[in-house]
Every structure is written in C-alpha cells, then in structure tokens.
Amino acid sequence: MNLLKENRGILAVCGIFFVLGILRLNDLSLYTDSTRYLIWGTSVAQFKGYLDDTQPDPDRYVVNAPLYPVLLFPVLIVFPHSIIAAKIWTVLWGACALFLFHAWLANSMGRRAAILGTMFLALNPLMIVISSEVLSEAPFLALMSLLMILLDRLMERPQTPPGLTIAFLVSASAVVLLREVSITLLAAMFFTLVVRRRGKIAFLLLACCASVYGLWLVRNLILVGETPSAQSSNIHFFFQHAVTPPDASFLNELATRIQTNARGFSVQLGGMLLYPLPPNLILWPGDFFKLIVNNMSWGKYGVMAVVSLTSVIGLVWDLRQSRSGIMRAIFIVFYLMIILTYPIHDVRFLLPLLPIMIFYAIKAIVWLKSRFLLAVLSRPGFILSGFSLAILPNVACDFEMFRTNSLYVQSPQAFYEKVRITNPEKTYFTVPWRLAGKWFKENTPQEVVVASSAKDLSTFVGERKMLEINSGIPLPLFESFLRDNAVEYVLSTGLWSDVTSYEFFMRESPRLRFEHVFSASNLHVFKVHSRWKTTLVESRESSGLDSISAAGLLRKGRLDILMENYTGAVQALQKATALVPTQPETVFQLFLAYTLMGDSLNAIQQVQSMFTKPRSTPYVWSAQIHLSAMNRYRQVKLMKSDVQQSNELFALSKLYWNLGYQRRAYRLIRETIGIDPTFFSGLLWAWHYGIQTGDTLQSAAYLRTLESIDRTNTVVKSFRAMTQFSDTLRRTKRPEERARLRLAIAREYDKMDLPEEAIDEAERGIGEYPSGRNARNFLGEMFQKKEKLRAAARALDSASYPPEQQ
User: What's 753's DSSP letter?
Assistant: First the structure.
C-alpha cells in the first residue's frame, strides 16, 4: 500500500498517457513496418515461428530486429492480426517506458523534477503517436531507461551483486534484438564500463550481446536466407547509394547524407523535438492552435536557444556528477552518426534522443537552482505556471490530433469526402483498410491474390494473399509480378488529389488492362485483365492533362517523358513540384526528365531533394539505375572506338528496354546499328524491338541484313519463321487457325528465351480462340519453367475448363 501511495503521481501520469494513447487508436498505420510486426507477432503467437504467410510465397526471412513480435505474443494469441489490440499493447509499453523514465530521473534529480519531466515526455505528440503505433520504439525506450538505471547502480557500487549483473546483461541482450540501432547504446555502455574499470562486466556484455545477435543472424541469414521477395535488410540498404551516383565514392555518399540529414533535422535537434507538430495528423485546426503554430514560426528560435543552452549545461553537469554520464554523451554521438548517415530521413528516428534531451534540460534547471540559489525556481506557483506555459503547445497539438482522429473514426468515408475538397495532399486518414478488406471478403474467393504498394491490407483480407509491389519499379517488372503471381486485383492508394499509386503503370501497360470495380475513400480496387485475352474491359477514366493543377502537370510531364520531349517535361514537372513540394512522385519524374536529357547536375539535385521527402524510399533503387545509365551514355560519347561505342550503346538499349522506355531503347539500338551496320547481336535485338514497337518495315530490313550475314543462325531462322507466321496471320480469319499461328510464334519466342513475349503471344492466342486448350496449356508450361506455380496452376486449370465450358 505504501508503495502504491509513493508512486501515485507517476501512476497517474501513466494512466493519463494510456488514455491519450487510446484516443489516438484507429485502423491505420503510419509505417509498413507495423504490418510486418503484426504478421510476425501473429505467427509467433500461433507457434509457427517467424512466418509471413500473407503473401503468395510464404517467407521466413525477417528484415527487422526480432524481439518486438515476441513482445506482442500475449495479445495476439487472443486477437490474431488485430491492429487495435497490438496498438493498445504498445501503448502499455509506452506507459512502462514513462514509469522507468521517471525512476531514472528520480534517482538523479528527485521525485518532483522526475514527475514534471515525465509529464512533459508523456504529452509530447511524437511520444504519443509512436507509442500508439505497432512499432518497437516504445519498448526500446522502456529498455533504454531500464539500462540507464541499471548502469547507474553498477557505477555506484564497487562490488556488483550477481542479481544486478544478470539483470543488466539480460536487458542489454534483449535491447539488441529489439532495434538494430541499439548497437550504439551497447557500444556506449561497453566503452563506459572499460573506462570505469569494469572490464569483466564490459566483456560479459560484449559476449552476451554478440552471442544472442549472432545466433539470430545465423537463423535469419544462413538457415533461412534472404529471399528475392524480401525487403532489403538495413545493413544492405545502408551500403547502397541513395543521394549520389553509383560511381561516386561511398565516402562522398556518406558525406552527402550527413549534410542532407543534418539540414533536415537541424530544427528538431536544436530543440524543437520537444514540440513536434505532426501536420499529417491534424486537419481543420482551431484558431488557438493556428495561433500557436504561427508563433512557433518565429518562437522556435527562442526555444532552440534555450534548449540548446540547457542541454549543454545538463550534459556538462551530468559528466561531472555521474560516473555513467559519459555513456549518455557517447550514446548521443554514436546515435547521431547512425541517423545522419542512414539513407532514410524520418523524424521518428529522433525519438530515443527525446528522453535524454528532457533529462539534460531538467538537470540544467536543477543545477542553476543550486548554483545561483534561485529560490523562485522552488515555488510551487512558479513551477506550475512555468510548466503549464512550457507544455501548452503540446497540449494544444494533442487536442487537435485527437479531434482529427475522432472525426475519422466516426465516419471514414465522410471524413475522406471533406479531406478531398479541403486538404487533398493529406492522405493518412484517407485509406480505410478495413473497408477495403470487407469488400474483398464479400466479393472475392479466398484464394485470390491482391497487389498493393502498401502491405497494410494484408491483415484485413482473411486468407487472401497480398503481394506488396514497390511503386518505384519499372513497368515491365510490375507486369511480370502481376502475371507470375496470378494477381487478380490491384489496390491503388491515393497519393494526393486524384493521383494514385500505380497510376502510370495502369495507363501505360501494353500487356494488362485494369477495370475499376470498387472504391473506399482513397482506396481504389482494379480487376486485372490480360490486354490480349479480352478487348471488352477499359481502364478507369483518365483525368485531363491540364496545365494548371499539380496533378495535370505531373501527367503532362510524364507523357512528355515517354514521347522524349524532355524540355517540355521539365517545364511541366518544375511547376508541379513547386505546387506540391512534399510529394516524391513529382520530384522523381522531374529527376527522370533530367537524367534522360543528360543533365547530371539537376538530376543529382533532385535525388537529394527527394531524399528528405516522406514516402520516397521506393524510388531509391530506380533512381540509382537511371543515374548509372545517364553516366554510361555520357561516357559513350567520349569513346573513340566504334566497337566500344556500339557495344556500350547496345547494353544501354537493353537496359532502357527493361526499364520500360521502349522509344529510347529502340533509338539507341538504331544508333548502335548506325555505328556498326554489321553488329550481329545488335541487329537481332533491333529486329525484336522493331517488331514489339510496330515498326515492321524497318524490322524487315534488319532481317534481310541478318540473313545476308548468317542465314543458318538459329535465331535468324526463328525470325524468318515468325515473319511467315505473321504474314499468314494477316490473311486468315478463322479463330482456330489464328490461335494456332499465335501459339507457333509463342513457341519461337520460347526457343529464344524470351518468356514474356512468349506469354504475350499465347494470351493473344487465347483471345483469338477462347475455347482452345493448347494456348492455355502452353501458358501453364511457361509459368512452370519460371517456377511460378500459382500462375501455372491457374493456367492449367483454365485449360481443363475453358471459359465457355465453365
């Protein structure tokens, strides 16, 4: 009873925080990681181990640190795949973090200072937001505070009790499995223990953490292994180029990341992390909040000056007063090194620094009070007034955040209709996954496969499989993913205004048609059809290419890129980017226009600009490929050897073809032939590109040249046979005969190891004669060769029961 009475203050703070976390609950996630944790946690709770079976090919590779799904076990064993239950459980971890933070502060500065500091942390919008998402940050903060307490006690005692040592080692081993960035915390503790002559515990710490994490790496990287469908691990992602061309040195890459991240984080690190205002989570704020935001535009400099000064004073005093103070200073340095060099820019990464910033600020106030005998700082009235004034901006922000969230929860569809008119660029509250999931459950069979750029849908569709496809990949790869996985539906999410994910893919695809079948707010469902099998299905109406709105300018710029009108594309996309500066899609398309016209300076500037935009990660891989291609083309022009030039142009043409830029690829291959008219491999691909783009006249000329060089070549013979089949096809009208000729062409493509074109022709054959089985059987064989068993089974089943017989 006495213990409860002694802690009633902090328990009240934790209770308030829990209520605030509940007020922010909804069925949405800020990050895709949340859905991954939910899937792995459910799998662990069902005693399946770490298994993502929500996708077409089940995967046991885990891209994140593995402990958090285990921590979700107690709630997901009762409520599998429940995002609300997982969020409530995480809010409890946030409350636990506050309790331990209070204990850490109280040990250093007394209960009154600890309560005030903990209340400030509890009301911080970033703390509330991240603790009410299915993310590992809240447990990490709890373990970080616990380790601070344990390390302080280790430093206070000349002889460490075994129980304290065990608790310290277990907590450290746990945190290394919770977040990979915890290596900075462990390194700081190890260094501190060595400096303070606790070498035995230091090396026990090193041995325990290395053993635990090493065993996990053996499981994840060796026993399971990284799969082609898996997201890149953080280590691999870190060592990729993101803001500089691929041929730049990695030191240059790191230096540029540091500069870019430092500029982006400067205001928060300077002190405004104490007052984060999440703009995407607040709509239609009241006048009082607007007044605070307006005052913060100039008042932030005062906040930054005060916080920076108190942080420095607190750090210095902590180093002098506490034997473990050096650990916190080293941790800050190491942690900043990681987040400033990490190839993703996100304010979420700064959250672990927030408790330490508060710790230093309170430490400084306590020191100033004792140093200058400022009795006024001890008066309850002054403390209450000062604290109320300091916390007011965050309280107002929290209120607006909860009010916005409440409006969404009451009616997602009504909320969207208002957002669409007043704030079309704010999309967080416009994707009610639950409503889309309900539609799929009511209108599609359980074995259906759905593709989406966000994994969030996967926990709302029951047993249906969800294929996550990066929106930054090339169009041919997008088409391949859909066909290989027998995807029947695509879920497109709104980016802003009426611009949606996959929009350009669906407009430009030569192989697939997309029939709009359902919308829920800013989620749009399309049924996928082969363009060759049917001509009855049309895409959703296309929006006009106006030259006023950002959406219209973006579409115009994209069309100009495809038509190789790069100057016009740049002009349109510059205007679009100025209108919606936070949207990565406009910046990426502007980047493409610059790279394709060979403007390396502006292209790199756009890459670095895109780096700080939210949701820009999907474009990193594609941007690096385009930068590399641009540099290679510039180098070609400097080559003096015709052979070198033609070989490099040939390789570049194939690259651009695979990226989906057929006009550019065909132009480059013709340029190759212009340099060396007898380049045999170039002529082979020139014929193929000509046929695929409809330039049959020029292709016939390439074929005559090929036959004059080597008529006996196997590929040349196939070209001749395909030409004859095509000539016959133009003369016959019988469906069965046309289907047979299409299949004959498909078999020739198969001989040449061009599976996608072979599948195209087989699907054309099905379109010519839907009742036929031969083309369907051939499709099944092609997918079996590609080891795409789901698509193979679907094709072979349709061969057994063609549409007219079903």
Answer: T
pLDDT, block means (10 residues), the chain with 806 residues = 76 96 95 94 96 93 94 96 97 98 90 92 97 97 96 86 94 95 95 92 95 94 79 76 88 92 92 90 93 88 91 92 92 95 91 96 83 60 78 95 96 92 88 94 95 94 94 94 96 90 94 94 94 60 68 95 95 95 93 95 93 87 94 90 92 96 95 93 95 94 94 94 94 93 95 95 93 92 94 87 52
Q: Classify the phi-psi angles of 242: left when phi > 0, otherwise alpha if psi is within -120 to 50, otherwise beta.
A: alpha
| pTM exceeds cut of 0.85 | yes
CB 132 within 8 A of CB 90: yes
Helix (H) or strand (E) holding 239: none
Helix, strand or coil, per DSSP, at residue 530: strand
**CA angle in degrees (0–180, nearest 5) for 792-793-796:** 85
Q: In Å, what is the CA distance from 521 to each residue of 128, 494, 539, 684?
A: 26, 9, 19, 49
* CA pair distance 752, 764, nearest whole angstrom: 19
Phi-psi sector, 473: left (phi>0), alpha (psi -120 to 50), beta: beta
Please count the other Cβ atoms lying within 10 Å of the Cβ belonging to residue 25. 15
Structure tokens at 268: 């928060």
Answer for the pair 587, 613: CB distance below 8 angstroms, yes or no.
yes
Residue 509 DSSP code:
-
What residues contact 191, with CB distance under 8 A and at least 6 apart? 326, 327, 330
Report the C-alpha gap between 329 and 341 in whole angstroms.
19
Q: Which two tokens stand for residue 332?
A: 């800050």
Q: Specify the residue for token string 């285990």.
A: 70
| Residue in the structure block whose two tokens are 């208002």 | 418
In whole angstroms, what separates CA 372 from the centre of its chain?
Answer: 51
Beta strands 489-496 and 465-468, pairing class: unpaired
Per-residue pLDDT tens over the stretch 21-54 = 999 999 999 998 999 999 999 999 999 999 999 9
Give me the half-sphere count of Cα atoms (radius 13 Å) on the Cβ side of residue 742: 29
Token pair of 63, please?
């891209």
From 289, 214, 786, 763, select the one nearest 531 (Cα to Cα). 763
What proportions of the chain, in percent to the nearest 5, are helix, strand and coil? 70, 5, 25
**CB-based contacts of 15: which residues, under 8 Å, 6+ apart?**
95
Answer for the pair 556, 533: CB distance below 8 angstroms, yes or no: no
The Cα 731–Cα 716 span in angstroms is 23
